Amino acid sequence: MEMRVRSGGHDFEGSSYISRVPFFVLDMYNFRSIVVDSDSKTAWMGVGLTLGETYYKINEKKTTLACPAGYWPSVGVGGHIGAGGYVILSYKVRLFEVPVRVSGFNVKRTLEQGAIQLVHKWQQISPKMPVKLGLTVQLYSIVNSAESGKKTILTEFITTYRGGINQLLSIMRRYFPELGVTRKDCQEMPWIKSYPFSLGVPIDDNNNLNVKDFLTNRGSLGDPSGFKWKVDFTEDPIPPEGLEKIFSKLHEVPPMTAQLGWTILGGGIMDKIPESRIPFPHRRKLMVMRHVVFWNKNDTSVVAQTRIDWMQQLHRIIGPYVPNNPRAAYAGYRDFELGVNVVENRDQTSDVENARMWGSAYFKNNFDRLVRVKSLVDPQNFLKSEQSIPILQR
């Protein structure tokens, strides 16, 4: 019988809950303690704590202390660290001081307002901007009420900056005047609100969703649905003709059923640690591209398969614009379409070369080293799952 480990239960293939073979769950879900030492800027966290709970508890201890970790609050600390965990603040590796208030904006531009040209420019200038400013892009297909109900692509340029609005506007005028950010577009907020703000989530402490609910709610914040994710890493800007193909593909799905989120990855400590230092190898990259398509719980299996097929087609369109030897993926966004361990019977070990299909995508040249380590510390291959590190044949 195999073992599955649940931390936050956020696995994109549901492997904390389901498997093709009999299994039991080592459930870490309720290991949720956290001890914060604001003097040493360290925190000891239970493996079942979510990132949102981590942010909120640290903020309770000290409102000007922050933790560099991942984007979505329901991700478990154990899974985040285990996957390598690229973060909102990739230039930091420990708790750090932040201002009492930070600033940010969410500027929306449609295809008709030059979104393709703006995204192309964003790719070029973002790596040169101060590391205290994180500018991300989110793309959706929407119905444009200003264009008589015509479908278009909405592009959100979202940033948070560890400083005031005046400094933020000065930086934008210097690096990205084409976006046309004005003072009216900007707002100041406590650091704790910058987490949902960076995801484009509207927060209303008086009426609907407040910061505490968003960060600490372990249930669904929306209607249950199915989804499929893909991730890519780029080294060079995607040219305008490539962006046009991607935007055109996004037009094919119903409004708001797919989202593309692109985040600049490089800079700071991420670029200083060699690829071979730890298993997470995706360094000195331009950006990480996260793509998701949804379907409702009441949709038919035909609709679900159509959306999955669409995601695979989008993945092929993006292929020429990303490194392909191997094409990188992120272990935190588990994807069984990359391959799974195949075992003819439960007494045999998984085949290393078969696992290389996904292992090299997640870990690049570190995969073989991980296989050697796994073979030493777990020679019976007890810790195995669909995409666990295999062991060498004896």
TrEMBL record:
* Keyword RNA-binding annotated: no
> What keywords does the record list, in alphabetical order?
Alkaloid metabolism, FAD, Flavoprotein, Glycoprotein, Signal
Glycoprotein as a keyword? yes
Q: Which residues form the Berberine/berberine-like domain?
A: 329-390
- A Pfam family hit: BBE
State the pathway, as annotated in the record: Alkaloid biosynthesis
Residues of the FAD linked oxidase N-terminal domain: 3-86
Q: Which InterPro entries match?
A: BBE, FAD-bd_PCMH-like_sf, FAD-bd_PCMH_sub1, FAD-bd_PCMH_sub2, Oxid_FAD_bind_N
GO: which molecular function terms? flavin adenine dinucleotide binding; oxidoreductase activity
Q: Which parts pass through the membrane? A: none
Name listed for the protein in its UniProt record:
OLC1v1014943C1
